Amino acid sequence: MSRHLAVRPPQAPSVRNRAYRKTILFVAALSVLFLVGCAAMTGYDPTSYKTATDLKAESLTLIEKATDPPTAHRDEIGQLRVNLRKAYEYEKGKEGPNHLTVQQWKILNDPQGKLLGGFLRRWEQSGNGQSQVFIEQVKGNIEKAFDQIIKLESHKVKS
Q: How confident is the model at residue 158, as a pLDDT?
């Protein structure tokens, strides 16, 4: 007795599978473009990387203290602003195409923005401690902004 196995004819990939494949290809292409773009920027700078990671830690530590009135941390706020400005000026002064990094520092520091510069300005203007819920939200956004700066630097070509 011979058994006949039913052979299914090849089926076209489902729309869902095609969309998934297109998404994967799109993400892969973007990743390649990102890495190529980073390679076209200035080379990796260990000073820039260290500055960004140090300022991230310093900023997040100060934000955690924002339940207190800003007057209790006036010196820390002032020193952080100076250090942020130094980082911005250092990146701005590099030769070569470093405009993405400069723009990220500018956005992070903007006193009219919604990241660190804006948070510090609003905290000082209010004269009061901030709510823990607000601090956690702001802290998350600022942490992500620093992570973008750090990733951008770490993906630059190391010589």
A: 83
